[in-house]
Fold this sequence. Notes:
- The structure holds two protein chains of two kinds.
- Among the domains of chain A are: 347-573, no CATH class; 582-651, no CATH class.
- Chain A contains 28 helices and two strands.
- Chain A has helices at residues 9-24, 30-56, 86-109, 116-135, 139-157, 165-195, 200-209, 211-215, 224-239, 248-251, 257-266, 271-278, 280-285, 287-308, 314-334, 338-365, 385-397, 403-417, 421-446, 454-459, 465-480, 488-493, 501-506, 524-549, 556-564, 566-573, 578-625, 632-651; strands at residues 64-73, 76-84.
- In chain A, a hairpin with a 2-residue loop joins strand 1 and strand 2.
- By secondary structure, chain B is mostly helical.
- Chain B has one domain (5-88): Helix Hairpins (Orthogonal Bundle), CATH 1.10.287.3510.
- In chain B, helix 1 packs antiparallel against helix 2 (29-54) and helix 2 packs antiparallel against helix 3 (58-88).
- Chains A and B meet through helix 28 of A and helix 1 of B.
Amino acid sequence: MDALSLLWWIPALPFLGAAVNGLLVRNGQKGLVTFVGLAAPGASMLLGLTAIWQYATGLAPEPLRQAVYSWTVGEMSIDVAFRLDPLSAVMTFVVTVVGFLIHVYSVGYMGREEGYRRYFSFLNLFMGAMLLLVLGSNFLVMFVGWEGVGLCSYLLIGYYFDQEFPPEAGKKAFVVNRIGDFAFLVGMLALFASFGTLEFGEITERVLAAPEIAKAPYVFGLSLAGFVTLCLFIGAMGKSAQIPLYVWLPDAMAGPTPVSALIHAATMVTAGVYMVVRTNVLYQLAPEISLFVAGIGAATAIFAATIGLAQNDIKKVLAYSTVSQLGYMFLAAGVGAYVAAIFHLATHAFFKALLFLGSGSVIHAMGGEQDMQKMGGLRKHLPLTYPTYLIATLAIAGIPPLAGFFSKDEILAGAFAGHHHLIWGVGILTAGLTACYMFRSVYLTFHGSFRGSHEQEHHLHESPKVMTVPLVLLALGAVTAGWIGIPTGLWEMAGFADHNVLHHFLSPVIATLPGVDTGHHLSHSTELLLMLVSVAVALGGWLVAKRLWGGERGLAADRTFAERLPFVQRLLANKYYVDELYDRVIVRPLAGLARGCWKIVDTLLIDGALHVGAFVTELTGDLGRFSTTGNIRNYALYFFAGVLLLFWWMIF
Amino acid sequence: MSVPISWYLLLAAALFAIGAIGALTRRNGIAIFLSIELMLNAANLTLAAYSRLLGDRAGQMVVFFVLAVAAAEAAVGLALFIGIFRLRRTIDVNRINLLRW
């Protein structure tokens, strides 16, 4: 089978599934909904994997581009085209595999929900939009996918629309994302105005051929590359939940847990990282913006990690952990370690999806309870969820040889090699915090003794196979995903040939510019030392967590902390009051302005003018109607008077 | 000897004025009709007089048309008034003010 010529079917199939489930199937036909909902992304995954295989084994031209339709307006013509190159191949792999597993898991998790069909329709729609985003060959196709995933995110966060909070959270996500999307659009149009094309390939070629165009001053004292990358990064801030636009992601946990796993951990939120790496040639030409990206990434990473330390809702912990790990990815992209960013994106997709699905299994067992204060000792009752969750925690904490270790280590090595020592320091501190708060969640949830009610304890049960099998498969990924990117240094030290597969595969995507130094190389001893430091920090975080929350200690440490440092505890538990700050500084003034517009401009001025006009018309009408008496002789008189007037006018 | 044109015109003007005043002042619907006929005939008289003066028969042809139309109008008008009388037991136009605001 020639999967490469069927490239456009990869995003089309899930769209088809969404349409069939959304429009043709009826609510009662649950078996059919399940079949369509799984077959569409499943077929898309098989097609995607085949295409990637054929591409990677050299059966395809590089990079493969397939145009489906040409959108022409006047002189301008933009293709709806798909592009398979190493970067989109990695993304497609992650999205289809993790996405399909989460679809399977959803069959179990959402089985008893009312809106089963709606759920699968939206989830398929999301898969289609996400694949459009990663496979799009130009900014416009990417943007359509970008907006599509935003829409699905909104729809699925607000899935429980009969409750009060979820629709609010969905709205918040949508509005915050719009701020970023606007900047994305501006950046995209600036590129189009300068290059006359939106194709990734063409833009890269032209920039490489003439870097001085991109370096020329553009606006606000920025170069063209600087302006465009800044705009695109603001777009990425919204989608990938970076400071200051991260506030929607923790609230997005109001959606069903598989949605949190798929959209708000593994795929959609990483779109910003993908976009930055996709446009790396421009970022390389804008070192000041790259540094800004790295700074924002590092700040977000540590900021979210500290909040994660004080959250008691198991999904909130994971949400802040996601924000923090996304910060890591931007840190990597900012210091020029683009491959490391994509590497961490891929490994993170596996272990974070696994963590979310594991927490879903816990919530399922607890009958909907998400508060870790009421959990404890669940490992006895959840014999499969516990080890998989533990594996994911070890992976995210960066314990070798699990996936997170290699990707995180590569990011830190990249930062260190680029002489960004402060950023490296923040990164390593965050690594320790990550290990600490993740093990806190493990200890509070699975260890110690049960703190919930008797009813809940009676209800505890392991989830059905349809949920545990994806957990096991993802755990497999969380262990092995890192092995595709074992650093070159390790291979050399061990005396083997270099098998850093991911680097070799992705290197064609990373532009090499004359005069831009990307090849920072560390000596083997430094590299090994950095690894030891990061492992030591991760183990340290683990030990601290074990000392504070391990065994039967439960919540004692949290209580002591709240007594000793009530101010800090409140600050962290209330997420640094950022939501409140935004409410005061942005939301309320805007609402006030809107109210002012409504009361003064709309009601008073516009409505007032209309009312005056209506009153005048009515008044003249009232005056005029006294002339129509209904008396025929009056009318005859008017008629004669008119005739006389006409005569007078004709004669004189 | 012939009657000078001004006499015809004066007579026609007098007839028209009487008709106009009658149409405006009478309350009886039939009387208004009579007044309107008077005005029409004033116009006819003018037409006939000028026709004779100018030796052009077109004027007299128009008179015939006016007579025919006036007859038709009188027939329709009378039928309407009979209808109204059956409905309201009066043909006093002051009391038939249906076209009121």
